[in-house]
């Protein structure tokens, strides 16, 4: 019987080049940009079923409940592993390999980025099977995409001689950095491949190579896994040990140094969704080359993209532009300069603008809330609590609150008083009162919250009890 491949999904990063839709608080892997799933969900679904084991997802503590919720929506279970801090890709992959090895001493691991688009899952899986023979023979395999244009935004791989006994797999002659246009054109002519950043290998082989080539990563990560602790349904790596690991990409730490590197020249459709122009590339277009997500009207426009889930957006007389709207920001850019969006985020960050990193909608393990109005001494929020969801037992030093139930049933605790509220009923939470909101029903609970006070920040919360072990 052929052993199942264990998928490892790297689910960190902020995706700032897809601002304003992607921000630190809700990065691009959780967005639905192509198809009906988020990029993360599409990645999980791509490697679910026969031939694949339960996935190992490596993410940060800030995203743990988003990961869990999106996996629950798919009905797929796996290990969610929490990095205590970012140490680039190699440490994350090493931790996953250590965990896979504890599952199965002969484990084959398939490492995937959570934010890549690969529309043809069957073709991708066929390429994985092509690489399996080489991985089982001790090769560390990556997937190199045959380029269809001289792209300057990707690293490249120069394939070497064929790997004996593994049809369709080549040794790697060289990794090369992102080129200028003239060099990219030469690479295209010379048969170079785009470096997709996805890998297939034996967990044991990878960890042995890591110990040989980068012991300052291998040792601390092994210790971080050994000292890992359970936190609800998550596995939290030991912070002190993990923090000692050198921050380095897997390419620099292992792939460029090992003599075991191999590549599967691949022709499945692939994009790392590095800019809004990539969304236009993948989207269905009208006769004038325009594409839209949400409601859009095009008049005398060609080759444009509109991403506007909440607002009707019209584009008149423009060619090759991208327009993206959210509830608190609008982006307009020439399509061929879409990668420069990162510079906008840097300016907003330097100016300490909330829009650089946060959406008006914020997600929590119990549901979400959206700020819909704000003034000097007040804020209005729409709060949604999942069935069975429960906010922490808490108090505030600087604000009082009024809650109005819009739909569903709320169980509200204020001091020693516990009561049920239904649609159109309301309650007042005095400043300093210990209180809690719960949804005991079977449908989502929606309330409108009006806060009043001199300080309305999210850090004005003192928690006494919390089902999600937040402090």
UniProtKB/TrEMBL annotation:
Q: Does the keyword Nucleotide-binding apply?
A: yes
Record-annotated Nucleotidyl transferase domain positions: 7-287
Gene name of the record:
cpsB
The protein's matches in InterPro entries, at most eight in alphabetical order, are given as: GMPP_N (IPR049577), Man1P_GuaTrfase/Man6P_Isoase (IPR006375), Man6P_isomerase-2_C (IPR001538), ManC/GMP-like_b-helix (IPR054566), Mannose-6P_isomerase_type2 (IPR051161), NTP_transferase_dom (IPR005835), Nucleotide-diphossugar_trans (IPR029044), RmlC-like_jellyroll (IPR014710)
Q: Which domain of life is it from?
A: Bacteria
Concerning Pfam families, the annotation shows:
ManC_GMP_beta-helix, MannoseP_isomer, NTP_transferase
Q: Which UniProt keywords apply?
A: GTP-binding, Nucleotide-binding, Nucleotidyltransferase, Transferase
What is the name of this protein? mannose-1-phosphate guanylyltransferase
Q: Which organism is it from?
A: Prosthecodimorpha hirschii
Question: Which transformation does this protein catalyse, written as a reaction?
Answer: alpha-D-mannose 1-phosphate + GTP + H(+) = GDP-alpha-D-mannose + diphosphate
**Domain (Mannose-6-phosphate isomerase type II C-terminal): residue spans on this chain:** 353-466
